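FW: tagging you since you asked about this chain on Friday. Here's the raw sequence from the shared folder, copied in full. Didn't touch anything.
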Amino acid sequence: MLKQTTSIKVEESIKKAFEFDNEIVNFYDPIAVNITKEEIPSDIYRKFKEYESHGMKLDYYDFFMGDKFCGYIAICKERKMLVSFGLCVRDKETKDSLFEDIKKVLDYEFICILNKRNERGIKWLVKMGMENDNVDYEYGGHPFVVLKYLSNFKV
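HL: got it, structure written out here
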């Protein structure tokens, strides 16, 4: 279940989502050279503030299974975009539930842009039904992937 949170509180949610993820550095933005696991939450939060300073309206949600915190998402409804996500619980039920909630909050049509290095995130989103447009994109000399979810079927 998603519960909306504030831009101030989301930084703590990001920290909790990645606290025990010892592999996150391997998947994180290659532009952030020599970044440590402990620095990643602040860097993600910094990017949110940068996006907002350029006019992007972000909404933040904590994700729970029952009363247990399991992760967070950041979205931009006007651009129909999943901007960021992180999970501290990664069992199948939790991941499936999160994706169902993402689809609902973004009205079943959205994109997600990930750096190509984030193979774990790309693999999960494709498994959940997102399509890779298989076009090579680049930003700052680093390749990225655009995934899209388009559904005519709404629950």
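FW: Residues 108 and 152 are 8 Å apart (CA to CA).
HL: agreed, and The first strand starts at residue 2 and ends at 5.
FW: great, closing this out.
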